[in-house]
Amino acid sequence: MELINEFRVPVPIGQAWQVLTDVERIAPCIPGAQLLGVDGDEFTGAVKVKVGPITVQYKGTAAFEQKDDTAHRAVIRAVGKETRGQGNAAAVVTAELKDEGDATLCVLTTDLTITGKAAQFGRGVLADVAGKLIGQFAERLEADVLSELRTAPARDEQSAATAAPQPAAAQPQTGAGDAASVNVLALVAAPVAKRVAPVAAGLTVGLAAGYLLGRRQR
Amino acid sequence: MHEQPVSMTVNGRPVEAIVEPRLTLADFLRERCGLTGTHLGCEHGACGACTVLVDGAAVRGCLTFAVQAEGAEVTTVEGIAGPDGELSSVQQALRECHGLQCGFCTPGFVTTITALLRDNPDPTEEQIREGLSGNFCRCTGYQGIINAVRRAAELARRG
Amino acid sequence: MKPAPFAYHRPTGVAEAAEMLAEFGDEAKILAGGQSLVPMLALRLAFFDHLVDIAGLDELRGITREPGWLRIGATTTGAAVGADPQVRDAVPLLTAVTPHVGHFQIRNRGTLGGSVAHADPAGEYPTVALALDARIEAVSPRGQREIDAGEFFTGLWETVLEPDEVLTAVRFPVWDGRCGFAVREFARRHGDFAIAGAVLGIELDAADRIARCAIGLLGLGSTPRRAEAAERELAGRAVTEVDPAELGELAMTGLDDVPSDLQGSAAYRRRVGAVMVARAFSDAVAQAAAKEHSHA
User: Fold this and answer.
1) What is the average pLDDT value for chain C, to the nearest integer?
2) Residues of B near C (CB-CB distance < 8 A)?
3) Chain C touching partners, 3 or more CB pairs below 8 A
4) Which position has the higher pLDDT, A169 or A64?
């Protein structure tokens, strides 16, 4: 099945690309994830995903199939295995950044294949949890990225403020005032996140949905 | 792992054992008490084959842990007949009305109907169907079982 | 299908239960009736290292009537809720939904508090709590709090309860006046999880105008839902002016995550849901209209 998610980061495309392809940077932003190893372009990781009382733990690898620094486009292939035998998942994630001047739109297209218990799921639940998971990741990343980018301009602001009062509208270049406009729907270009979020979410949700399906009677 | 003692009364007899907390009451009765009359159909609470009486109430044996039945009085299908094997009115009625074929669901129906008629000795047709709605039968098509409930009520009235 | 191993704890009080949750964190879960949790454990969809059994705690039992409210202790079973005359008198919607909660064997163990905390989108008790703006009481080592049902359900089987919180009671507002309550559910077998359903409460004034209406929806989202647009539309309207079928359609608007699975597509669920609302509305109106107007 195909999932499409997107969100915006309030930084120019060059910066966005840099941050989002820095796996070690973004891995801490993924809820419940651990980066276990990096070997060139291949990443090994584990993630724990919760849907109510249901928890699933995935272990897997993700690798860049393509990474185009000019077109700001990356393709990541990921496979994950549920550690308690609930099934497998494989995902091919295409990430594209779109230049919006001071901001960047990140579009993530995921082709997800699920086997095992999770394979009986309904698309709606899957998309819902995937979106939520990716949303959480995007929020954390945004906070992380913005806080780092703010520290530099903040110094400028302060020195300017001692000279003359600056109107609040004089935003630093990073457009921190646009924080509110970040559409926290998905994250792109972060291999671990992309691998983890849709795959992990897909598996969890698949399980949840499979359970929902199978349990028509009490 | 985490084994702990549990004690309860089963069909009038005190039972004590050391069990894992995850052991369900149904498995406890079958494996530790040797009472295999309680059957496991779905093991997630839907089919009713594992229904037993705990302190008189009909419950799913597969959704109760043995440790949760600490100190309780448990009645299985083996405890329904009289001390000399005389069939209860429910059992008698199921027999008369051909309310069973393969018998897999039957223990669950016996305990369920026993509880139903004890709480409502003269049920309406609708109440009978409602009361049986939590038990599956794959053989009979249910009509014989429904008839058996009416017949059992009648037998009980006659004393 | 057997659960994975866990340690079993029986605290002697709610405070101790909450402390155990705090101590064991994510690896602990409250066990009350177990009718929702144990199937998940048995199917190995959920795993917990510690189960904290609160079913025997006296302080969580009991149904009490307070001015304007009915307070139901968390470990009150569905069977007890369904049979209780106080409930029938004060919150008849709870009495009406109870026969739809699984089967009587399930109701002999399953608890109202557990059902609300489990927050199944097709759960009758959570949906009634949402529809009637109930308040949920919870205790943690950090203290007590009350949560509005409208804020309680956040996602599939997810609530705002913290990992170290124990749901201790649910308080339902009591409706006075010319009220009617109804539930209509569609499931493949009576007692199964609803494919779509509606719970509805309505109050009419002396002139048969709708003073208020609450519509809860089951199985039409990742949480129980309210048909807010439909409720707004009804306020103040003369009951004879309302077309139940149109109301049913209106109730299906604004639902953005209707499930689609083997039991039914989202479109099918909406169709069924609309009809359930329409029928529940007619039932409830008939009930309310039959009552004499009583002055508060």
Assistant:
1) 95
2) 1-2, 4, 20-22, 24, 27, 43-45, 48, 51, 57-60, 62-65, 67-68, 112, 116, 130-131, 133-134
3) A, B
4) A64
* Distance separating alpha carbons of residues A9 and A147, to the nearest angstrom: 13
Taking an 8 Å cut-off on Cβ atoms, the answer to whether A84 and C106 are in contact is no
CB contact under 8 A, C6 and B21: yes
- Write the residue in C1, C7, C102 that is nearest to B2 by C-beta: C7
Q: Is the pLDDT of residue C202 over 80?
A: yes
SS3 C214: strand
- A36 and A120 Cβ atoms separated by less than 8 Å: no
**Domain boundaries defined on chain B:** 4-78, 89-158
Coil/strand/helix, residue C287: helix
Over 60: is that where the pLDDT of A207 sits?
no
Q: State residue A178's pLDDT score.
A: 29
- What parts of chain B have a pLDDT lower than 70? 1
pLDDT at C296 over 50: no
Among the four given CATH numbers 1.10.760.10, 1.10.150.120, 3.20.20.70, 3.40.50.970, the one describing domain B89-158: 1.10.150.120
pLDDT per position as a tens digit, C112-152: 999 999 999 999 999 999 999 999 999 999 999 999 999 99
Q: pLDDT tens across A75-125, in order?
A: 988 888 888 877 787 888 888 999 988 888 888 888 878 776 655 545 555
Q: Classify B4-78 by CATH class.
A: alpha beta
User: What is the CA angle A103-A13-A42, rounded to 5?
Assistant: 130
Contacts of A123 in chain C (CB under 8 A): 260
Contact status of C267 with chain A (Cβ, < 8 Å): no
C172 pairs with which residues across the strands?
Answer: C70
User: What subunits make at least 3 CB pairs under 8 angstroms with B?
Assistant: A, C
CA distance, residue B53 to nearest chain C CA (Å)? 9
The count of structural domains within chain C is: 3
- Residue A114 β-bridge partners: A89
Cα-based distances in Å from A205 to A3, A116, A119, C116, C170: 13, 13, 10, 21, 29
CB pairs under 8 A between A and C: 90
